[in-house]
Design a protein that fits this description.
alpha/beta; 2 domains; 3-stranded parallel sheet
């Protein structure tokens, strides 16, 4: 655990440039971008054979339709059919939803399909930092004019260019957008590539994609060295299919991928006091984290990671954050403005407003 977070060159993957830009504004080791990822096992090996141009109903690739529920819908237990629909299509429309980072983008790319991402050019440079943003924009520019007509067919497009674009995106996904790559990036940002024992703290309220994917990646990298408290039952293979089907998004993509292992989840308070863990992760922070005060008492800031996977650009405790998204009680109990100083922050949605809020806190404004 001796790597230096001050050196962006030590940060693996495509997010390194965003990491360097944020560090230039806020200083090193304050705030890091963290994007969704998917289990490696779900990413197809090669671009599948295609039978249609555009996933869902035929129509224009515009923000009003992108990802519209009425275009195509799959219910509980239909994950394979959902994936197959993408696999058989050259393109699928997507857009910003609650936040810029959306699991749909990854589900499209992991199935060997090209996303037509409406409005991507407006995404803040620090969000979707792990994505192939320039490549996605170039591909959209090449093909969107033909798709925009609403009556295009595969014959209207350059088949060679189309396949190369799909292959390039799939290769990027296979290298950078799986959960193990996410976990290794996370550990590198913490200067803890050699960590062996990590405590992952959450409340079991409901799924949070960033939390689920980070936990999956860290378990893949660390094995039993990753202690998840509480146990997020829907991530484990033993979870009943009908139960995960009632979860958000029908449980597609994020549920039932982890083996049940003999994880020691007992005596957590005493183990925190003994500083048994190399790192402590306070995940899903907006919904509250157990042992928050105890962790603050016994662990230095640089060994604590705070993960905010919410849709909003501001951090819990910042006054402009919508009142309807208030953090849970033990987060509120942290003195105003102090939460950002309790650990190294990883955030899914980062904009200019995010950075200005952190700069204002640092300057006392």
């Amino acid at each position: 655990m001796t790597e230096d977070r001050r050196n962006p060159a030590a940060i693996p993957g495509p997010a390194a440039a965003a990491v360097a830009g944020i560090a230039e504004r806020l200083g090193p080791g304050v705030l890091f971008p963290l994007s969704y990822a998917v289990p490696r096992s779900l990413i197809v090996e090669a671009v599948p054979e295609k039978t249609r141009l555009l996933a869902g109903a035929a129509g224009r690739a515009d923000p009003a339709r992108a990802g519209a529920q009425g275009a195509y819908r799959f219910g509980p237990g239909e994950q394979d059919a959902y994936y197959r629909h993408y696999q058989e299509s050259w393109f699928a429309e997507t857009c910003r939803k609650g936040g810029w980072d959306c699991l749909r983008h990854l589900e499209i790319m992991m199935n060997g399909t090209i996303p037509i991402f409406a409005g991507l050019e407006d995404c803040p440079e620090w969000t979707l930092a792990s994505y192939p943003r320039e490549l996605l924009l170039q591909i959209r520019e090449r093909h969107a004019p033909v798709l925009a007509g609403g009556s295009a067919s595969v014959d209207d497009l350059d088949a060679g260019s189309l396949r190369r674009d799909a292959e390039d995106l799939l290769e990027f996904t296979r290298r950078h957008l799986h959960t193990e790559a996410m976990a290794r990036y996370f550990l590198a940002c913490m200067g803890a590539a050699g960590a062996r024992s990590v405590l992952f703290l959450t409340r079991v309220k409901k799924p949070d994609y960033l939390c689920e994917m980070l936990l999956h990646g860290l378990r893949s990298v660390l094995g039993e060295g990753l202690v998840d408290v509480a146990r997020r039952w829907w991530l484990y293979e033993s979870a009943a299919p009908e139960a995960v089907g009632r979860l958000y998004g029908n449980g597609f993509t994020y549920t039932r991928h982890l083996e049940d292992r003999a994880i020691d989840r007992d005596r957590i308070a005493s183990r925190i006091r003994a500083r048994e863990f190399d790192l402590v992760i306070m995940a899903n922070i907006e919904r509250g984290t157990p042992f928050l005060k105890l962790v603050r008492q016994h662990y230095p800031r640089e060994r604590v990671a705070i993960v905010d996977g919410g849709d909003y650009e501001l951090f819990p405790g910042q006054p402009a954050r919508p009142a309807t998204r208030r953090p849970w009680r033990d987060t509120i109990a942290v003195p105003d403005g102090a939460l950002a100083g309790a650990g190294v922050i990883f955030k899914r949605e980062i904009s200019e407003a995010t950075l200005r809020a952190f700069e204002a806190r640092r300057s006392g404004g």
